[in-house]
């Protein structure tokens, strides 16, 4: 009798499920940019944990493309969010905001830097490692003109080597203009590597050997969290001159930006992203953990949320914060 009753109930449940509309099971896809760098990937995974566990009815997807292509996809409404947006690198950003095509959601991190970096021992030496200063007078990007022999290109002995940014990144366009404008193309080759991982691998390899290296880096990254690097100084930032490569990158706020459709699509998530705020040191710490432990971005995101449990209370109502803690 019990088995018969259980079977009847099971059939009723199955019938009910079959008659429910497909929309009842569908989840709203939230699409975020993946432009290829580690810190953004980490933010995406932190957001995934929260969006899919603290809230009902959402699933987070990523759009993997260049920063330029993803920016246009946000304007078109095909992508919802850029969680780590370097808006000062985007020449059209003010116009896009003014036109209502891009919406400022909040400040992700109040402090960030980027440009040409060298290991500190290149300038100051490192007595503990037995490294003498290689370029003690090196302070600015323009100073590089007199130090090309310090940064030799193994494939072209007559010139030095400068590592540029990643092809397709907006920063790379500015840096290559700077390379030509400052006359560094006379004595240096500008080398573009295919990915952030390859670029940072070249830096770490040189650092471990105590060799000279100069190239693009930014903060926060796992290398900035682990290695002692120096950002070379440049001319004071000027908006118009910057686009020509003639000034330093601005020390900028990293922002969260969305499409003009996102507020209507996910109003409850909008409230979370308005409060989602981190910092360069915090993210560099998590990225250093990612590298040291050889874990995924998802695992590093979980580690960060466990290690800094107060973040959830800053971002979320108590009930939703507890839902995330339960899955961690």
List the helices and strands and how they pair.
Elements lengths: L1 H18 L8 E7 L3 H16 L4 E7 L2 H10 L4 E5 L7 H6 L3 E8 L3 E7 H5 L27 E2 L2 E8 L6 H12 L6 E4 L4 H14 L5 E5 L2 H5 L2 E3 L7 H4 L11 E6 L2 H4 L1 H9 L4 H14 L3 H11 L2 H6 L2 H10 L1
Parallel strand pairs: 1-2, 7-8
Antiparallel strand pairs: 3-11, 4-11, 5-9, 5-10, 6-7
What pattern of helices and strands is seen along the backbone? Answer: HEHEHEHEEHEEHEHEHEHEHHHHHH
Question: In order across it, which strands form the biggest sheet?
Answer: 3-11-4
Give the name of the CATH architecture of the largest domain. Answer: 3-Layer(aba) Sandwich
Q: Output the CATH class name of the largest domain.
A: Alpha Beta
Strand content: 15-25%
CATH superfamily of the largest domain: Periplasmic binding protein-like II
Query: Which structural class fits the helix and strand makeup?
Result: alpha+beta
Count structural domains.
Answer: 2
Work out the radius of gyration: 24 Å
Tally of helical segments:
15
Quick one: overall form?
globular
Q: What is the CATH topology descriptor of the largest domain?
A: D-Maltodextrin-Binding Protein, domain 2
Characterization of the model:
The structure is a single chain. The protein has 328 residues and is of the alpha+beta class. It has two domains: 20-110 and 254-327, D-Maltodextrin-Binding Protein, domain 2 (3-Layer(aba) Sandwich), CATH 3.40.190.10; 113-242, Glycine betaine-binding periplasmic protein, domain 2 (D-Maltodextrin-Binding Protein, domain 2), CATH 3.40.190. 44% of the residues lie in helices and 19% in strands. It contains 15 helices and eleven strands. It has helices at residues 2-19, 38-53, 67-76, 93-98, 120-124, 170-181, 196-209, 222-226, 239-242, 262-265, 267-275, 280-293, 297-307, 310-315, 318-327, and strands at 28-34, 58-64, 81-85, 102-109, 113-119, 152-153, 156-163, 188-191, 215-219, 229-231, 254-259. The strands form four sheets. It has a three-stranded antiparallel sheet. Strand 1, helix 2 and strand 2 form a beta-alpha-beta unit. Helix 12 crosses helix 13 (297-307).
